[in-house]
């Protein structure tokens, strides 16, 4: 028989422990605070952490902070760690691992972008997965409602067909509304369809919410940034491609200015949530491309997060526990 004390203890752990909502800053200021960022990619968005050869270690938060970065983006494959049937409960141990990441980032003064990443079932069957997607955000929003304003939610990484831009425009406001029930003023990031492509910004329809940041991703020219990448069909044919002439720079400038213009016209701050060149490209070209994309983003008032910290695109080499100096220089200079 359950005693009164045990019942009260059960009740206490069965409801979210809300603190006062974080004080809201103007959204442009929040975006500016994201500043110079880096993705902790290939870890928590793998089917299980470590499966793709990378695990997050506590020392990495110090490495990032000491290098001069201001934020980390944390891609998370929540769909691999949640039940398939209602109420679609997230595995407690996995959620606690993400809690640990947020705690270590926050206590070092790093801003955090926390997202839903690689939700393949949703991309492929949006109507069938809508209930589960919304249930995930209901759980996440309540769990992290007492996090400081330095923690920003990103609704979904790179929506793509069959989750068309039109279907995405219909779906994401529902997730946003759920987030707003427990996080009325928290900054939330949303991007356009077609893999957060700049050219798809024109199709993005935003609700009347003053606390939204718009994200885009940038990997152009794709044959340069993905040469030799095993998941990109035909990529071995692109090996040896260089980057860095006047035409190359003009193309990047044109693309990023298109995003910045859209942001000004719609009064929305822009977050360049991913950009990077794969390790099979020669380092001199990678350094030039990374330097130019980063400097153009900064010139245009965008915050940004490089893809990524310690894997195939990595600016850091976990095997030596050292930054790859040319990429660190390209991103934050050398301290």
TL;DR of this structure?
The chain is an alpha/beta fold and 335 residues long. It is 41% helix and 12% strand. The protein has an 8-stranded parallel barrel, surrounded by 4 helices.
Task: Sum up the structure in keywords.
eight-stranded parallel beta barrel; TIM Barrel; 12% strand; 335 residues; 41% helix; 10 strands; two-stranded antiparallel sheet; alpha/beta
Please tell me about this protein's structure:
- The chain is an alpha/beta fold.
- The model is unreliable at 1-22 (pLDDT under 50).
- The chain has twelve helices and ten strands.
- The protein is globular, with a radius of gyration of 20 Å.
- The chain has an eight-stranded parallel β-barrel, surrounded by four helices.
- The protein starts with a helix and ends with a helix.
- Helix 4 (92-106) links the parallel strand 2 (71-74) and strand 3 (111-115).
- The chain has a single domain (21-332), classed as Alpha-Beta Barrel (TIM Barrel), CATH 3.20.20.80.
Shape: globular
Low-confidence stretches: 1-22
- Highest-level CATH class: Alpha Beta
Structural class determined from secondary elements: alpha/beta
Instruction: Encode the helix/strand succession as letters.
Output: HHEHEHEHHEHEHEHHEHEEEH
For the sheet with most strands, the description reads: 8 strands, parallel, barrel
| Strands in their spatial order, largest beta sheet | 1-2-3-4-5-6-7-8
Rg estimate, integer Å: 20 Å
